[in-house]
Structure formats: structure tokens, C-alpha cells
Write a structure and sequence with these properties.
Layout (H helix, E strand, L loop, with lengths): L2 H14 L4 H8 L3 H8 L10 H8 L3 H6 L5 E5 L2 E8 L11 E9 L1 H12 L5 E4 L1 E3 L2 H12 L8 E3 L5 E7 L5 E6 L20 E7 L8 E2 L3 E2 H11 L3 E6 L7 H9 L4 E5 H7 L13 H13 L5 E5 L3 E5 L5 E5 L14 H14 L4 H16 L11 H11 L5
Length: about 400
């Protein structure tokens, strides 16, 4: 570690946050003389203080030590969501009226990347996916650029249109998706130059919707597994998300991938679907025992750092040491809920932010669940997200459900 670089970085962050040396010293339970010495390059904080300093300033430990941030890369499904609000789902052969139509970016890549950028614009966010050479593709890329997201590694095709999804949404918040694979079906490991990645965390979703990544591989099981193995070998931590697939083909495509994941961030249906256990009792209540069993099986299959599962009433985290954490969701009044499209991606963005900033599991889940609650306040997948401090205020406003 270079004490001069560390000192300059701490001083810059302290001033950006309008904080005096004395105020920082008080937060860290050290003397203001110690802070002064750090900033002048005459020494640096005890190694145990770096996570706390990083948390105070909302940066990574790497940034404190190196004066730069490698950030997070989001890859995977990229599409346009066409959200159609209806009063109810019709029976077969019957008609219902569409009340209004809204267009928005959708899929793992835009939703998660934009949510992260809105939470904290200081984190370098880059994206890798494939879109068509068409109006929808240009709309997606320009929207990402608007949030300062690096789109230089995006891929383009003339063989297929940009993927899109018709989202049928009813007032209760339930939604049904009709998906056109389009350019996402072409997106493959060869589209990503691992050696050119400049990130600490590489997150990709959704497994089961990326046809070329889900293809069989004789050695690794799937091409996604091979790709993630190579990414880890490059010193980058890997993270995945799944899609709730009605075919129930989780085991074949997901289990081989788990061995090469540092983080798995999925919902209760997906986690339990991998191992063919029921996530809920007949009365609809969450079956925490089964969820924890499925999470443990994911750890046993090779997940290195953390399995996170989210559902509407709570969220869970489990690590290889057996530490299991549960946090209740925010108590958002029904009348405040405008939609749930992208709530899982909002939760995922909150998790990635917490992981990137070395949050403890309880703090990570609290933040991620509050980020997911922001999503409920708007009809599309990204408009509801707020900056970090406003997310924390929202958690105080609503409180949490009683488990």
C-alpha cells in the first residue's frame, strides 16, 4: 500500500462529503491527529479500519487503497419492455382492454446497470450485451449512456431484432411476460474479451434465457460454466441471476454453473426449482426450511462466497461458513405500489452495491430490500430507483414487515 495515495484519497473523499478531520476521527474512534497523519502521507489507517472508512464514504476498499475503482460489469439479457396495464387476465378466448402502454428498457443488463448508476454515480459501471441494429437497440444504448454507463463493449447484430418483452400487468402488481428472444439468442461467450474486463465484479443474467451460454459443454457442463471459470481465473468475482422459467429446466443448466460463482442472487422459486423442493406451503406462506435447504445445496455445489434469495416478504443470505441471515421486506402500502416489473433486478442491484462496499449480510439485505421497494413506486423497472441516502430514508419511512 502507498501511504501517500491513500492519504490523498481519504482527504479528497472527506472534502467531497463536507466532513472535517475531527468529524471523520469521531466516526472511526481515532484522534484527529491520526487522520491528519494519514492525509499527509505519514502513515495509513489500521487495516481493520478500511471497511469502515469505505462504508462512510460509499466507496470500495480497493478505491481507498489504490485511488481508483474498477467497478462492476453487468452482462446478459438486454431488451425493451412494453408494459401494458390491464384490469385482469382474461380467460381463454375472452377480451380485456389495455388501459395504457409504456416503453422502458428491460432485462438484467439495463435494469441492474441503471439501478446501480442511480444508487451511486461514482461507481464505474460497464455493460456487455447484444442488440439489433434497429430503433429499439439505439434506444437501449442511448438510455444507458444517459446514466453515465460505459457501453463501449456492447455488441450489435443485423441478423435479429433487439429482444423485447410484452409485459401484461394488473393492478395487484402481478405480471405475465411474453418474450421475443431476438439478439439475446445470439449473445455468446465469444462476444466478451475477458482480458479486457476492468471490474471487480462481473454479474450476468439471466441463466436459462441466454441460449448460447446455456449450451452444453463436455468438460464444464455448460458454456456459461466454462466462461465463468475463465473469468474467475482472471481475478474477477462472478455473480449470476436466473429467470423464473416455466419449463423447470433449472438443474441441467444451473447446477454446473454454481461451482464457478462467487455470488448467486435469485428468488425463492428459482432457488428451490434448482433442487425440486417447494418454496411455499399450501397456504402460500414461505417455507423457510426448504429455502434454506436449497441455498445450502447451492453452497455445497460450489458457490464460493454467498447465496442470496429474495421473495416478497423477506430475503435470505447464506455463506459457506453456514451463517444464515434473514431480513424482512419493507412494509409498502398497497396504494403506493404502481408495479413490480424489475423488482428482482432492483434487489440485485442493491445486493451488488452492498457486496461491492463490503456490507455485512444483514446490512446488504436491508439495503437491497429497500432498493427493491423503490422499484414498486413506479410502473417500469428503473424509474423508481433513488440515490443511496434516499433509499435509506425510504426504509425509515415504511418500516419492515413482521416475519
Amino acid at each position: 500500500m502507498d501511504s501517500k495515495t491513500i492519504g490523498v484519497t481519504i482527504a479528497k473523499l472527506r472534502r467531497q462529503n463536507g466532513m472535517t478531520q475531527t468529524a471523520l476521527a469521531e466516526k472511526l474512534s481515532v484522534s484527529n491527529k491520526a487522520v491528519s497523519k494519514w492525509e499527509s502521507g505519514q502513515g495509513y489507517p489500521d487495516i481493520t479500519l478500511f471497511p469502515k472508512i469505505a462504508e462512510i464514504f460509499g466507496v470500495s476498499v480497493d478505491y481507498l487503497m489504490l485511488g481508483e475503482e474498477k467497478g462492476i460489469t453487468i452482462a446478459g439479457t438486454t431488451l425493451v419492455d412494453i408494459v401494458k396495464n390491464i384490469d385482469r387476465y382474461p380467460e381463454a378466448g375472452m377480451l380485456v382492454h389495455i388501459n395504457d402502454i409504456n416503453y422502458a428498457v428491460g432485462g438484467c443488463l439495463p435494469n441492474t446497470a441503471i439501478n446501480l448508476a442511480k444508487i451511486d454515480r461514482r461507481i464505474p459501471i460497464s455493460v456487455i450485451g447484444k442488440v439489433g441494429n434497429d430503433e429499439n437497440g439505439r434506444y437501449i444504448v442511448s438510455t444507458l449512456q444517459k446514466y453515465g454507463i460505459n457501453v463501449s463493449k456492447m455488441c450489435y447484430t443485423s441478423q435479429n431484432p433487439t429482444s423485447f418483452c410484452d409485459v401484461m400487468s394488473i393492478p395487484s402488481g402481478e405480471r405475465t411476460f411474453f418474450h421475443k428472444k431476438g439478439a439475446n439468442a445470439e449473445f455468446c461467450p465469444d462476444d466478451i474479451d475477458i482480458n479486457s474486463l476492468n471490474c471487480n465484479i462481473f454479474h450476468i443474467g439471466y441463466v436459462l434465457l441466454l441460449d448460447r451460454f446455456d449450451e452444453d459443454d463436455k468438460q464444464y457442463g455448460t458454456k456459461m460454466a466454462r466462461f465463468l471459470s475463465e473469468t474467475q481465473k482472471a481475478g474477477i468475482k462472478t455473480s449470476i441471476d436466473l429467470v423464473s422459467d416455466s419449463s423447470g429446466n433449472y438443474g441441467k443448466k444451473v447446477i454446473p454453473v454454481l461451482k464457478y460463482c462467487n455470488y448467486v442472487i435469485i428468488n425463492e422459486i428459482e432457488c428451490c426449482g434448482i433442487w425440486n423442493v417447494e418454496p411455499r406451503f399450501d397456504n402460500g406462506k414461505i417455507n423457510e426450511e426448504n429455502v434454506r435447504l436449497a441455498m445450502q445445496k447451492c453452497i455445497d455445489a460450489g458457490v464460493r462466497d454467498k447465496v442470496v434469495v429474495h421473495c416478497k416478504e423477506c430475503s435470505f443470505a447464506l455463506d459457506p461458513k453456514g451463517r444464515f441471515t434473514t431480513v424482512a421486506s419493507l412494509k409498502v402500502p398497497r396504494e403506493d405500489i404502481k408495479g413490480t416489473v424489475g423488482a428482482g433486478d432492483a434487489f440485485c442491484a442493491g445486493c451488488l452495491y452492498g457486496i461491492y462496499n463490503n456490507y455485512a449480510d444483514s446490512q446488504m439485505l436491508e439495503f437491497a430490500s429497500a432498493a427493491a421497494a423503490c422499484n414498486l413506486l413506479e410502473a417500469n423497472a428503473v424509474d423508481g430507483m433513488k440515490p443511496r441516502n434516499e433509499i435509506l430514508m425510504l426504509a425509515e419511512k415504511y418500516g419492515r414487515l413482521t416475519l
